[in-house]
Amino acid sequence: MQPRTNAGRRTRNTVVVALLVAAVWGGTALARSAAAHADPDGPTGPVAHFSRAVQLIRG
Predict the structure, then answer these.
(1) Which residue has the higher pLDDT, 4 or 19?
(2) Which domain of life is it from (predicted)?
(3) Which residues contact 55 (CB under 8 A, 6 or more apart)?
(4) Whole-structure pTM value
């Protein structure tokens, strides 16, 4: 097995950072989209999505 080179380490680190940035960017875009289309009469707060899930289960 060959020891890792600096170039290989840099490449791996670059890929990891790019994936993290993409995940954060996608998460914030999704959160903004969900906030923009939220039901103003619906529940708010950290458990609001649970009540929506219960509604979907109950039918």
Answers:
(1) 19
(2) Bacteria
(3) none
(4) 0.50
The C-alpha atoms of residue 7 and residue 32 are separated, in whole angstroms, by: 37
Residue 48 has pLDDT above 90, yes or no: no
The answer for residues whose C-beta is within 8 angstroms of residue 51's C-beta and 6 or more apart is: 42, 43
* Amino acid making up residue 14: T
Per-residue DSSP letters for 1-59? -PPPPHHHHHHHHHHHHHHHHHHHHHHHHHHHHHHHT--TTS--STTHHHHHHHHHHH-
Distances (CA, A) of 46 to 10, 12, 28: 39, 36, 16
Q: Indicate the residue type of 16.
A: V
